[in-house]
């Protein structure tokens, strides 16, 4: 559970997740922060964009790298509402993200503390510091509500 | 080793890899095929695009999904010159690619037969048929030449 107030980047990531839900996409949101400033944000949008890679983390990382004109987001933080999957964990490593904060764990699809455990592999040349659980209750509630409405 | 002639999609992926090398990017190329027709291709370009996700596979998958206006590339094949990393293996799974052909194995960064072994995880809900080794000698030669010139 989370103590109030939530750090502002996670509050913003949760707002992105809520916006994804309202657009009919699985509600996940992400924000890239550098030196305390939000550089870019993203929300899950594979259906609307016809893009299977359009997870919140990928969109936020691509937007941040484009904005900074640098393929490496060294020193940047990524705040995301759900444990990243293998694709997104790989992108986080390639982008040299320094710190990863995620809200809810994802036993069914996560690849940080579950399954592929991408950052723990010998093939992983860069891994972020990982801080799970911030905003977990809120992120899980948004996901639960989304899937309940669809049942 | 590979018997001649190479299947046309792998020949085209190798040409994409060579073009990447000439642009100063790590030489990897990829092609998406549907019903025997090339739908999209891509070459590694993270530096030029300032995009850490701009691996050949990701670019080919995104272009194919955009062209087909469908986030799912069901029934499609992906031909790539190097064993996909965790990010790209995850994208291949999300895209529902039916068959994956790759040329050279990548013990240092691969996540199909090495490391994260993304398709073997319980969290992986879709995995392609995997055919490694087609064009391996040619793909490895292009990579070796690229890194030799940079030493």
Structure in words:
The structure is a homodimer of 151-residue chains. Chain A has 151 residues and is an alpha/beta fold. Chain A has one domain: 3-Layer(aba) Sandwich (Cytidine Deaminase, domain 2). The first copy, chain A, contains 5 helices and 5 strands, in the order αββααβαββα. Chain A has helices at residues 8-22, 46-49, 56-68, 86-94, 136-149; strands spanning 29-34, 37-43, 77-82, 99-104, 129-132. Chain A has a 5-stranded mixed sheet with strand order 2-1-3-4-5. In chain A, helix 4 links the parallel strand 3 and strand 4 (99-104). In chain A, helix 1 packs parallel to helix 5. The radius of gyration of chain A is 14 Å and the shape is globular. Chain A starts with 7 loop residues before the first helix and ends with a helix. The mean pLDDT of chain A is 96. The A-B interface holds A 46-47, 49-54, 58, 61-62, 65-66, 68-73, 85-91, 93-96, 107-111, 114-118, 121-125 and B 46-47, 49-54, 58, 61-62, 65-66, 68-73, 85-91, 93-96, 107-111, 114-118, 121-125. Chains A, B: One of its GO terms (molecular function) is tRNA-specific adenosine-34 deaminase activity.
Q: Report helical residue fraction of chain A.
A: 25-40%
Q: Give the count of structural domains of chain A.
A: 1
Largest interface: A-B, 45 and 45 residues
Structure summary, number of beta strands of chain A: 5
CATH superfamily of chain A, by name, is Cytidine Deaminase, domain 2
Q: Based on the coordinates given, report the CATH architecture of chain A.
A: 3-Layer(aba) Sandwich
What is the radius of gyration of chain A? 14 Å
Query: What topology, given as strand order, has the largest sheet of chain A?
Result: 2-1-3-4-5
Series of H and E elements of chain A: HEEHHEHEEH
